[in-house]
Design goal:
This protein is an alpha+beta fold. It is built from five helices and seven strands, in the order ααβββαββββαα. Strands 4-5-6-7 form a four-stranded antiparallel beta sheet. Helix 1 packs across helix 5.
């Protein structure tokens, strides 16, 4: 009876090993790649230029309340490359910018302004290849912020995202960052959003792997006892 149970456990362990072999290889390979890269290098800390210091010639003028959006939930003063501006956040996440000099509301960022801002934010010597506008409800996979944005692509593969409403820098994504992000998506088995760590595929394979390890731990002393008996 004991020998039959051991044989059945051994067969189950082998079949489970075949089943979880590919996920284990993916987890190990992607995990190794991610931990082998310095996180500061992946985040591109050295790629971002230092933000300009706040420079006010006089007391900033507060913007008038826009009639179509109501009172802003918050106001913050931000120094941009062409001067200080107010960034106003309204209900439902809508944002606008206004000049800190006269309080006048400023229009949305043009492609030319976004290109100019990206060149100043991005430190390496690279040329702009293309620019693309994306709406807030369809952000690029490497941005993952629900903001209207200009995505500026550089010749070295980096993507610089400028907020289309406020002109603020949203993100700098290097080519290495996107590789890291793809590896992370493989690691959690979610290549669509690369954020969901609680889905049936990942939970199922993790449970099967844990079960297989438990069987292996049970079989190990039984196998050693069998060898001593022989």
């Amino acid at each position: 009876m004991a020998n039959a149970a051991r044989r059945n456990l051994g067969r189950l362990h082998i079949w489970l090993g075949w089943l979880i072999g590919i996920p284990l290889l993916i987890w190990t390979a992607t995990g190794l790649w991610m931990v082998a890269r310095p996180i500061e290098e992946v985040r591109g800390v050295a790629l971002k230029a230092e933000p300009p210091a706040l420079a006010l010639e006089s007391t900033p003028a507060f913007p008038a309340l826009p009639s179509d959006h109501g009172a802003p939930l918050s106001l913050r003063l931000e120094q941009q490359w062409d001067g200080p501006v107010w960034i106003a956040t309204f209900a439902h996440g809508h944002e606008m910018r206004a000049s800190a000099k006269d309080g006048q509301w400023l229009p949305a960022i043009t492609e030319a302004e976004a290109r100019s801002s990206a060149l100043r934010w991005y430190r390496p010597e690279a040329t702009i290849v293309s620019a693309r506008h994306t709406p807030a409800d369809k952000p690029p996979i490497d941005l993952r912020k629900e903001r209207p944005a200009w995505g500026i692509v550089f010749s070295d593969g980096a993507h610089v995202y400028i907020d289309a409403d406020t002109g603020s820098l949203l993100a700098i994504r290097s080519a290495q960052w996107r590789i890291f992000d793809f590896m992370w998506g493989l690691h959690i088995m979610d290549l669509e959003t690369r954020e969901d760590t609680h889905h049936p595929i990942l939970v199922g394979f993790s449970a099967i792997t844990a079960f297989s390890i438990v069987i292996g731990l049970i079989l190990l002393p039984l196998s050693r006892r069998r060898k001593r008996t022989k």
